[in-house]
Amino acid sequence: MMPAQASRTAAEPDGLEDRLRRFATIWSRAIFPVTATSLTRPEFEEHLLPLARSLRDALHRRPFDAAPAQHAGAALVAAHCTDTDALTRTLGVIESYLVLYCGAHGDTPAEELRARCARLQHALAGGFAQALRERTLVEQEAIARSALAARSDAQEALHATETRFRAVFEGAAIGIGIADLDGNVVEVNEALTRMFGGLESSVRRRNVSEWVHPEDAPHVWKLYGELVRGERDHYRVEKPYYRGDGTVLWTNLTVSLLRDAEGRPQYQLALMEDTTERRLLNLRLRYEATHDALTGLPNRTLFFERLDKAVSATDGSRFGLCYLDLDGFKAINDSLGHSSGDRLLVEVADRLQSVATRPGEMVARLGGDEFVALTTGPDTQTEVAELAHRILGALATPVRLDGRELTVRGSVGVVEGPAGERTSAEVLRSADITMYRAKSAGGNRYEYADPEADARAITRHGLTTALPAALERGEFFIEYQPLVHLGDGSVHGAEALVRWCHPQHGVLGPDRFIPLAEHTGLIVPLGRWVLQEAVRQARYWQTRHADGGPLRINVNLSPTQLHHPGLVADTVDVLERSGLEPGALCLEVTESALIGADEDLLKPLRQLADMGVDIALDDFGTGYSNLANLRRLPVSVLKLDRSFTQGMQRHPADPVDLKIVEGIVSLAHSLELAVTVEGVETGAQAEQLRELGCDTAQGWYYARPGAPDRIHSLVMADAVQ
Amino acid sequence: MERPAWAPPGIDLSVPSVSRMYDYYLGGSHNFEVDREAARRAMEFMPGLPKIMQANRAFMRRAVRHAVDEGITQFLDIGSGIPTFGNVHEVAQAASPDARVVYVDHDPVAVAHSQAVLAGNDRATVVAADLRKPLDILTDPKTTGLLDFDRPVALLLVAVLHFLEDADEPGRAVAELRDALAPGSLLILSHASFEGIPLPEEQAGGTVGVYRSIRNPLVMRSRAEVTAFFDGFDIVEPGLVSMPHWRPEGPADQEDPYAFSGFAGVGRKA
């Protein structure tokens, strides 16, 4: 820039320098549009100025030398005026303006100036052409060399890549194989060869389509077909192969389609993972998970799988199920020991296995001494009975164990029906319930499932499980039935009778749930609660009716309560807390609970009796009434069973019943026992019983069991009389 | 099957290269007949293509000088192509001798040529990488060896983003690069657009078709779309404009009408 600025200041208007600059400006304007330079217009013009000067000087130099014009042509190319238009326009500008702007000074004749100008144009064109040719050759060579370099770089990289890939291919832990679309194996790696037994040639010779195995999943070859036709890019399957030696190789196989750059299918790539070991392990684990370790029979898990399948079948088939529980197995286990018990189970399992061999039949052990036999098919209605027969038959021959012969019996619950109606759990429950029915009918038999019996059992079961929560939630309540003095008709006390207000089933009597509570042991807390409530109520009555004489309260004791070690302490505690004197409490114990009772069992009763608590023998006359035994029992009251009073409802009363009652009363009185009768329903009965000498009575004739305030009003009525 | 990342792209000289076509537009001979043939086809639709390229070179030159004036001496030129003349390192190192320049291109021939041109210049280098994978560029030892990303860098995305289709997520690529730059860094960007071309869009579309046919689609973007690339940058004066209008050194009205095609702009990272 500096020299240009300097020259501009030196240029006086229309002086030599100014005319030269005007020539350069015209030149620049003409060719700038066709240059590729990144210079700005002013910069480009500055760039041309020295070239213009060299042309002007050459126009006048003596001797004439066209070389500067040649250099100017080359300089144009160097300034990226490589377009031939730049040359054409340059020559036009020189032709029209060089002599005009730069020819005026000096003494060269005009004629010669024109000739020189023409020669300068020739030289410039020559210089331009030569420079352009040089530049083109240089650039072509440079780009060719670059292309070559790039190509060799790429090849090197490709080679490195291929080396790496080869290492990956060969060293891979999974089997890799490449085959063409016709199935010809092109390449396999070492891992794949190893999987197939180690001989590469035996793998390479094969065609992929030959590797058919009978256990191929049905879709495997369909997927293969889709892949080689280019309809699918990959698939993944579990596939077995035969090795050369006939053994089986299991693989997780992933096959991918390799396409060329245009997307046309070219090869298939298989990646294989050897799963043979894992599969064997899985099979073993599966076997262990589905079979009983002791007997080798299918276990509960496998049985349920089969049962699920059988009951959910949709092809109209039926199923039959036999649920077997050995009778008295616990006793065998207890007396001969567990190892003998186990051997017995193994023997039973073997026998069951041998009688359930028809297609569709299976035997499983559910646990303990419980076995099931399942049969499926269209004719299970007849088959299941035969199966149950065979099962009982298989048990008929005694089992020899340690030199003894053991007779093994079983109870079988049979369920049969069409598939698609019940869940497996429902079926098994029904079979279980039915088995218990067979057992309680004496065992060594089979019973068919019966929906009503099932329903009863299910309700019973439901009540049993609901009992504990019912006690906590206060669903129990007590009704009281008056005990009336036969002599004067006054209310002498009341019997506490527990009820359950069940949220679904409504009010349930003790016959519905006391046996269940007995069975589960809940009777102890329930009994204690009844005792507490009844005693509290009795005490309340006493405080309200001080003049009505002492009101007694009768509370029932179940056999389990009788055996409970806390009975005496609990009773004492309840009495003390309430303040009721022991003499106002009467505990009723059934006759059957005391049959064969030894001193240990009687001791708590005796203690209670010694304290003044009355003990009543309930339901007297129903069991095996050991009259001789009465003497040693700590009992002060006999409660005659309602069956005796029923005989007196007729008119005239059954004379035999009368005699019996008369006899019992007389016996009781001679043993200093009071007699209470239950189930009094008519005035005639009451009169008769009074005449026979009975002391107290209860029954609908007087009052049904009711709320405590009803007793209150009865007592009040007495008081008024 | 997709080529694995570690496999180099092949060299196929039967396929036109956009860098060599660019060289041809600028009157260079760093090209092969296949490139010239494609360039001639493109010029049938837009005879003024060379003028656009020229204006682009001129814009780049002015923008690099602007960066040097702003005190920036580090340059990352992605999509640098075939070095013809007036390259970033020439402009930058002329203005500031210690300027450092990293060229990036994914065309192996352009990279090889750049290597030859830059031989002996220890403050300029070329990295073979793709704008679609900014991390490859930023973590290349040659990049990290020459540029200090704790100091401002001028990032040049000159006439390159229009070769990234939307599926290539050009915005994400720019953002990733931006996040690597120190505050005060510049983004120097030019982009093709139907806006400003002195031709009906259908005719200019013929050029787009040529580039599509050589599997290097040219994606024309609107002003709004190009502006979005400056997310995270403050666009400096005079904003996003046609190339001749970006800080001109002479009267812009003398420029060829084609020079006004597309957009150019410079942004500064806050």
Q: Helices and strands of chain B, in N-to-C order?
A: HHHEHEHEHHEHEHHEE
What's the shape of chain B?
globular
Work out the strand percent of chain A: 15-25%
| General form of chain A | elongated
What does this structure look like?
The complex is a heterodimer of chains A (about 725) and B (about 270). In chain A, the strands form four sheets. Chain A has an eight-stranded mixed beta barrel with strand order 13-14-16-17-18-19-20-21, surrounded by six helices. In chain A, strands 2-1-5-4-3 form a five-stranded antiparallel sheet, sandwiched between helices. The longest helix of chain A has about 60 residues. Chain A is about 55% helix and about 20% strand. Among the domains of chain A are: about 140 residues, Globin-like (Orthogonal Bundle), CATH 1.10.490; about 110 residues, Beta-Lactamase, CATH 3.30.450.20; about 160 residues, Reverse transcriptase/Diguanylate cyclase domain (Alpha-Beta Plaits, 2-Layer Sandwich). With about 725 residues, chain A is α/β, with parallel strands linked by helices. Chain A is built from 27 helices and 21 strands. The longest helix of chain B is centred in the first third of the chain and has 21 residues. Chain B has ten helices and seven strands. Chain B has a seven-stranded mixed sheet. The radius of gyration of chain B is 17 Å and the shape is globular. Chain B starts with 17 loop residues before the first helix and ends with a strand. The relative contact order of chain B is 0.16. Chain B is an alpha/beta fold. Chain B has a domain of about 190 residues: Vaccinia Virus protein VP39 (Rossmann fold), CATH 3.40.50.150. At the A-B interface, helix 3, helix 6 and strand 4 of A face helix 3 and helix 5 of B.
In short:
The complex is a heterodimer of chains A (721) and B (270). Chain A is an alpha/beta fold.
Features:
heterodimer; A: 721 residues; alpha/beta; Globin-like; Beta-Lactamase; Alpha-Beta Plaits; 8-stranded mixed β-barrel; 5-stranded antiparallel beta sheet; disordered N terminus; B: 270 residues; Rossmann fold; 7-stranded mixed beta sheet
